[in-house]
Design a protein that fits this description.
This protein has about 290 residues and is an all-alpha fold. Helix content is about 75%, strand content about 0%.
């Protein structure tokens, strides 16, 4: 591989990712405007802002300086990992992205997707399967642990293509993980409400195990960082310990807050319907 290709490949992937995010925002905003014209309470301006923050979190993770320092500091790799799996996905899902993007796509594409695909029984079964709590939990845990095995980690550090696949898998499984918790349209709750705090608690266990290992093992786990040119006066072991501590503390709070909110909701009197259900959703989706 030529030196020019080595330098161009990361930039091309970053441009492709940024372009994809911009197109997503465009379709979301178009759908948001159309929905607001039909039902002003369908998706609030606050949800729009939360969605934009989620997209910006993804953009921050895949572009410099995070994407550059990711190869130099394990701490920054952990920042990228947290942005893609724990920060961006819940923010994006809180913005009701599927509902808004659905109304932002061209009508011909919507008719094609709605009739032959969404009403096809195998597709409906597949949708229920991939959004089941057990699969969402297992997929996120498998990706988290799998990419942090030394050989898999080295593959992501040595190849920009594999690194892009790594980032995409973090984001995709992050969205899957948070789907049973947030339950965005058109998903429906299939598990009892008390299972959400338990689901989040169980998710902290593999994260805690990994972060504790990185913090207290006393050796550098990933040889890549032994030879990396670190921008700060910090050893590879100190960098690894900082990354483990960041993961430990961040994941605890990121999962604790929604678990507490879900517990409060369980113990509170019955809540009114969600605002997206205040309008006749069947009438809007038929448009």
């Amino acid at each position: 591989m030529s030196e020019a290709h080595v330098h161009l490949e990361p930039w091309s992937m970053q441009l492709a990712a940024t372009f994809a995010l911009a197109i997503t925002v465009l379709f979301y905003f178009r759908g948001w405007l159309r929905l607001r014209a039909v039902c002003p309470t369908a998706i609030s301006a606050r949800q729009l802002g939360v969605f934009i923050c989620g997209i910006m979190s993804v953009a921050a993770a895949v572009n410099p300086p995070v994407a550059t320092l990711d190869h130099q500091l394990l701490f920054m790799h952990m920042v990228q990992h947290l942005l893609l799996m724990a920060i961006a996905p819940p923010l994006i899902l809180l913005g009701a992205p599927f509902l808004s993007v659905r109304h932002g796509l061209p009508p011909s594409l919507i008719r094609f997707a709605r009739n032959p695909l969404l009403h096809w029984a195998p597709m409906q079964w597949l949708g229920r399967f991939i959004t089941s709590s057990s699969l969402c939990w297992l997929s996120a845990t498998a990706v988290l642990i799998g990419w942090h095995f030394p050989k898999a980690f080295a593959l992501g550090m040595q190849s920009e293509s594999w690194h892009a696949i790594q980032c995409a898998s973090f984001l995709a499984t992050g969205v899957l993980f948070w789907t049973p918790v947030i339950q965005p349209w058109p998903t429906k709750a299939r598990s009892p409400q008390w299972s959400i705090p338990l689901y989040l608690f169980l998710a902290t266990l593999p994260c805690d195990a990994l972060s504790a290992f990185l913090t207290f093992c006393g050796r550098v786990v990933y040889p890549h960082y032994l030879h990396a040119e670190r921008p700060f006066d910090i050893s590879a072991l100190q960098d690894q310990e900082s990354a483990g501590a960041l993961m430990w503390v961040s994941v605890t709070f990121v999962y604790l807050i929604p678990a507490v909110m879900a517990t409060i909701q369980i113990l509170s009197p019955a809540n009114p319907c969600r605002q997206t259900e205040l309008c006749d959703m069947s009438a809007m989706t038929a448009r």
